[in-house]
Design a protein that fits this description.
The protein has 166 residues and is mostly helical. The protein has two domains: 58 residues, no CATH class; 87 residues, no CATH class. The longest helix has 28 residues.
Length: 166
């Protein structure tokens, strides 16, 4: 339907240029702009939209860690470090009191978070669902580090969050 609707526009846009005697001289110089308006601009905008949709849909695949799941060793170490409790905040900036059921990426894997012990956080199902795939703010990154310092001795084990390639 769209093609048939464009035919009159194309006919008038590509009108031939005739001299005074009526001889054809080719396409009229002003009709080139008409061709661009009729064909070029819509085609360019469609291509731009397709490229933008492709880029937004695929995301930045280079920055994702090829391994998404934590190994058994990482899960065991992370749960031991958390002493079986959820490490995320429940209310008022306090540590959640529920038992940890999940091992989660503190910095989300889908946003470039590494699958490492530093990025592992023990979480109960409620806190894990609430956190979702949101990127933690710098303030939210420091609070679990301060809380971890109270129940973990090693400095390396206190650090929270890690992005791949950084």
């Amino acid at each position: 339907m769209v093609v048939w609707g464009c035919l009159p526009v194309l006919y008038f846009a590509a009108r031939l240029w005739r001299d005074r005697r009526g001889h054809n001289r080719g396409i009229h110089p002003r009709s080139v702009w008409g061709l661009w308006v009729a064909i070029g601009a819509p085609a360019a905008s469609i291509v731009t939209l397709l490229v933008a949709a492709f880029v937004l849909r695929t995301g930045d695949l280079r920055r994702r860690d090829p391994q998404r799941r934590f190994t058994r060793y990482q899960r065991r170490e992370g749960m031991t470090r958390a002493k079986g409790r959820c490490e995320l905040e429940s209310r008022y900036g306090k540590r959640c009191t529920q038992a940890a059921e999940h091992g989660d990426h503190f910095y989300p894997w889908s946003k470039g978070g590494a699958t490492s012990l530093r990025n592992f956080v023990a979480a109960c199902s409620q806190c894990n669902r609430r956190k979702g795939a949101r990127i933690p703010s710098p303030g939210l990154l420091r609070r679990p580090e301060r809380r971890r310092a109270s129940y973990v001795g090693a400095v390396e084990a206190v650090l929270v969050g890690e992005r791949r390639g950084r």
